[in-house]
Each structure stands twice: as C-alpha cells, then as structure tokens.
Write a structure and sequence with these properties.
Chains A, B: This is rRNA methylase. Chains A, B: Residues 113-259 form the tRNA/rRNA methyltransferase SpoU type domain. Chains A, B: It comes from Corynebacterium humireducens NBRC 106098 = DSM 45392. Chains A, B: One of its GO terms (biological process) is methylation. The structure is a homodimer of 269-residue chains. The first copy, chain A, is elongated. The first copy, chain A, folds into two domains: 2-97, Ribosomal protein L30/S12 (60s Ribosomal Protein L30, Chain: A); 104-265, SPOUT methyltransferase, trefoil knot domain (Alpha/beta knot, 3-Layer(aba) Sandwich), CATH 3.40.1280. Chain A has helices at residues 19-22, 35-42, 55-63, 77-84, 104-110, 123-135, 153-158, 182-187, 204-208, 227-231, 250-265, and strands at 2-4, 29-33, 48-53, 72-74, 92-97, 113-118, 140-143, 168-170, 191-195, 202-203, 214-219, 235-238. In chain A, helix 6 (123-135) packs parallel to helix 11 (250-265). The first copy, chain A, contains eleven helices and twelve strands. A seven-stranded parallel sheet of chain A has the order 8-7-6-11-9-12-10. In chain A, 32% of the residues lie in helices and 20% in strands. The interface between A and B is medium-sized, with 29 and 29 residues.
C-alpha cells in the first residue's frame, strides 16, 4: 500500500515525528535511516510498521521487493523535514516495533566468540562495536550493567544496521552483581578475557591463543572495566601501546581484539 | 603576559574569530582546543601566537608553566562564544602559526613503520589515523595525492593533538604520478604493503611477517587504493571479514594493521 502524504500534521506520520527531540526511544520504536539500513530492517526480526520516503527512494526499494502489507508513505523533502524535525537528505526511513532480544541460553548454545560490554553508555561506541563485531565474525554482543540502549536511533545508524542482525542479550544484575552472570559463560565453556590498558596484563595474543570459546570483556573509555568484572574473568589482556600516548577508542580496541581472535583460530582449524 | 578582554570585537581575539565558518584554515593557523591538546601544542614545533580561555583554565595551564612571551587572553564564556561563534565549554584555545612539515628524507632515515594515505579527504578519519598511529608506535604518516589538510581544526581535535607531535610529509605528484615517490621508500628498504578488502589478497599477518621496515598503504573508505598505487607496492594484504558485512572504518583497519605490525616485530627482537 503506497500513499502520498503532503500534510506534515497527518497522524500517519507520527512514527517519524520529532526524531531529534524524543529520538523515538520513549515510543519504543526502531528507526532505520537510508536504503542500506532500511533494507536490513526489512530482513530482520523486527516487525516493520511503515516506510516513509521520497518517491524515487521508494521506487528503488519496491523494485527489490517490499511486503505489500507494509504501508509506504511518499513525502516531499519539505514534508519529511517538517515532520522529522531535520533535513533527511537520504530520503528513506522505516519504523519497526521492538522485538524481544535473543535468549542468552540460545546465544551460548552455538556462539564461539562473544563480546561483553560494561558501562558503555556512548551510543556511537555501541554502534561501532556492532559494526566491527559483525564484520569480524563475532557471534553476539552481551550487555553488562550500565550500557546504553542498543536500539537507539544513533546506534542503528552507526552500526550500519548490524544491531538489527547480530544477536544480543542483557546480563541481569546491578553494578556489583551482574558479574555473577558471567558464570553462565564459564559453564558454557567460554574463556573470559578482560581488555585493559594495564601494562602488567598479558599480551592479547597470548591471552587468546588456543582457546575454543572466548568472551571478550570491554569497559567504557576512560574508567574501563570495574575491578569486580575483571576479577570474574580468567585473564587480563592488553594491547601494547606506545609510551606517552592515550588509550585507543573503545570500538577500535575491540576491533583489534576481534582480529586477534580470528587470527588465533586460524591454527585451530 | 595575561590580559582580560571583554569586548568580542577586540582585534587581539581575531585568531579565534568565527572558527566554524572559516575553520581558520584559510588563515593558515593551527587551532588547539581543550587543556590536553593545548598542552601538546605548547610542546610542539609550532610557534604559539596566543592562548585564549576562561580564568580558571588559564590558571591551571599557567601552573604547569607557559612561556612568558605568549599572550594569554582571559575571556568569559559569553565573550568566547561571541568571538568563536559557538559555545566552547572546554574554555581553552591556543593558536599557532603553521610550521614546515618534516622532510621525507629525515623521516625515512630513522623510521621503521610508516603509513601512507591516498585520497583520504575525511578529516575525522585523518585525525583518528594520527591518534591510532601514535598509540601503536607508527613513526610517521605520509600523504599521497588527494588527502585532506592534516592541520585542519577537526583533525587536531580528533587526533587528540598527536598530529602536532607525530612527523608527517606529503609525497609529491598528481593522481597518477605520486605513486612514483614510493620508490624512495623502497630505496630506503621499506616493504610496501597495500591494505585492500580483496579476498584474493594475502592475510595481513603473512604480508607483514619478518619485515624489518614496513610502509602500510591505505585508501579512502569506499573507493580504497587506486590500482596505480597498489601496483607500486610489494604485496596486497587483507584483514579477513565475515561474509555479507561491510568493510571496517578506515582508521579501524589501519589500527588493526598497526597492531599486527607491532605483533610481528615482537619476534624480530
């Protein structure tokens, strides 16, 4: 069903209204922006509510196939800007309802590599984490205490839609208790590795060598992992840094660890 | 010399005027923002013209020592916002004149690892490249054709000031001729390695193994290196990616290559 809408006040456009102000997070929606990410939302487990875009963008999307029961609203650039609250030059948005995350047991049953985040509130870092994890063959992202919302609009965009594809789950507990959930990972055969800038830690390559299943723990830029979390892991691993420099960006550190993990499994066959 | 200035029209504040509009690039200045980067500018080879900031920020800087001949202008938050054109909550800026880049021959005389960029116009990527290069022990950044200005304000900021410390140089030539300059690197004993997503390329670890001096070539996100550039190198290297995913961010790719380079030199002793 495709309809042209020219009135910015039309209630059928409410799902994409004032996106910058409320970020739609309060409305518990998932927003995909641009053709690539909209395509990934359509292929995902999230039930799509509507698609809003410029005529040519909708034409291109429909040429690749869109389920007929999803409403598609054709709007002008001016109308979309008036509704969304900013100029959306990519001209294509899709909105979905949230869906339950993947059960932890299901993830642990098949995963060989997972990353566990603690206290990572920055949405750009969470998005980059999903992009890097997907690109480097990590099987799932697990959230410890104090992390940002993985379905926040900015995360979806920065992840290039990979947050819609890659399984993730939240570990239960508070600031000082969530670490107990890591026991489930140990029970499932995972070797738990904390990433830390501590020069006394093992070289990353040594920490990962010969391990069949690995969980990489990463803390926020600045504070890093809590001592509570590191104590719950098997080993502390560092990426060597030049003297007098700053630590790397969080998602970059993780990407290096994902690379080393993939590299170390080459010899496992 | 410290002076309080309350008139936003005062010509002594011209160096920090309308920073967003002109980005000061037209004026051939170097702008450092925030205490960390200002400190790095003061330690750099760039001649500092003035420092502008809130009283407490200047107090803290002066406590660490500032050459007496550098003018320091104390301003209110309102004055600084009116002059710079945006609210500068970190409250400390320093401005320097540009200085000549490091001669290529001087870099090649001592460097063991360099990165060479081609067609990288994105200032955020250039800044992240410097941050990662400094952090992972890369000795210099070399610019092939078509790259952005390494002294652009955003580069200085994203690099966390490392662009002010790490040597860099531009290789001469046009789009199709700059690659000849790579011969100078070969003559100096560098093994030239192109980074590419091409699945037919060698694994990065194999491409770097056992090499005493390495130059890593990186192209822009999207188009990547030109065929011209890749032909001028000794080997094409890839970072393994999961099927159906996107390539990694440029600076992230480079960080992984820097890590592997450091890792491969561990056994060289």
């Amino acid at each position: 069903m495709r309809l042209r809408i020219d009135d910015p006040a039309d209630p059928r456009l409410d799902d994409v209204r004032d996106l910058n102000r409320s970020d739609a997070a309060d409305r518990r929606l998932v927003i995909a922006e641009g053709p690539l990410v909209v395509g990934r939302l359509l292929e995902s487990r999230f039930p799509v509510r509507c698609i809003v875009g410029f005529g040519p963008k909708l034409d291109a999307l429909e040429a690749e196939g869109v389920p007929e029961d999803i409403p598609r609203y054709e709007v002008s650039r001016e109308t979309l800007a008036a509704v969304a609250g900013f100029d959306m030059h990519r001209g294509l948005l899709a909105v979905a309802d949230r869906a339950p995350e993947t059960p932890l047991a299901e993830i642990l049953a098949t995963a060989r590599t997972v990353v566990v985040l603690e206290g990572v509130g920055d949405h750009e870092n969470i998005g980059a984490m999903f992009r890097n994890a997907a690109g480097m063959g990590v099987d799932a992202v697990l959230f410890g205490n104090g992390c940002g919302d993985p379905l926040y609009r900015r995360v979806v965009r920065v992840s290039m839609g990979h947050v819609l594809r890659l399984p993730y789950a939240h570990l239960e507990g508070t600031y000082t208790t969530w670490q107990r959930s890591l026991q489930q990972l140990s029970d499932a055969g995972f070797h738990l590795v904390s990433l830390t800038p501590d020069p006394a830690a093992e070289h990353l390559a040594d920490a990962l060598e010969g391990r069949e299943k690995v969980a990489l723990l990463v803390g926020a830029e600045g504070p890093g992992l809590t001592e509570h979390a590191m104590r719950a892991t098997d080993v502390r691993a560092r990426i060597p840094m030049a003297p007098g420099t700053d630590s790397l960006n969080l998602a970059t550190c993780a990407a290096i660890a994902f690379y080393e993990r993939d590299r170390s499994t080459r010899s496992l066959g």
